[in-house]
Amino acid sequence: MRIGARLALFGLGNAALAVGIACSDRPAPRGDAPSAGVAGGSAAAFEHFESTAGKFAMEFPASWRGSYTASEKNDTTAGARFAVEFRFKPDPAWKVEPRTLLVLRIFPKPVWERIAARPGPPIAAKVAERGDDVFAVSFPSSNPYKPGTAAAARFDELVLAVMQPKEPLRFTPR
């Protein structure tokens, strides 16, 4: 199923992701080595990302290894104060531009409360809170690549791996 059809359930997927991340009470390990968790008796590897500026760590499925870049920046979108944009790193042979896989934004708590109270679909899924900071992720509304291409298939695979993970993503505010 193409990502467009799955993203029709964007709010539901974000809610499931938020619950999966928020319910993960295992701390993320430090360092660059992938960690291993146990899911159903088998080891699951993760791709570790740590933001010193955003003061958080996040672990992606191992399938993300080598397939993304991260860009940290001050951000004012919807009242956020900081963002980390995770962009797809396509194979150079595909001759396509990198596109956003997901964005994690940090909102001041009062701003997030106003956003959450608005009617309509959520703009992001809350994944954690630390003091006055609320961490929330958002996904693209559709696949930006031409259907049937290798780039489109890989993009779908990566986004769906975090929207509907077999093992909940690990997110740790620092």
Salient structural properties:
single chain, about 170 residues, alpha+beta, about 25% helix, disordered N terminus
Could you explain how this protein is built, in words?
The chain has one domain. 24% of the residues lie in helices and 34% in strands. It contains 4 helices and 9 strands. It has helices spanning 3-7, 10-22, 109-117, 150-163; strands spanning 36-39, 42-51, 56-61, 68-74, 82-88, 100-108, 125-130, 133-138, 170-173. Strand 7 and strand 8 (133-138) form a beta hairpin. The N and C termini lie far apart (37 Å).
Count of individual beta strands: 9
Percent helix, as a range, is 10-25%
- What is the overall pLDDT average? 81
Beta-strand portion reads: 25-35%
Class based on secondary structure composition and strand pairing:
alpha+beta
Which regions have little confidence, pLDDT < 50, spanning 5+ residues? 3-43
Q: Strand-and-helix sequence, N→C? A: HHEEEEEEHEEHE
- Largest beta sheet: what is the strand line-up? 4-5-6-8-7
The N- to C-terminal Cα distance equals: 37 Å
Main beta sheet: 5 strands, antiparallel
Using the CA coordinates, give the radius of gyration: 16 Å
What's the SSE blueprint?
Layout: H1 3-7, H2 10-22, E1 36-39, E2 42-51, E3 56-61, E4 68-74, E5 82-88, E6 100-108, H3 109-117, E7 125-130, E8 133-138, H4 150-163, E9 170-173
Antiparallel strand pairs: 1-2, 2-3, 3-9, 4-5, 5-6, 6-8, 7-8
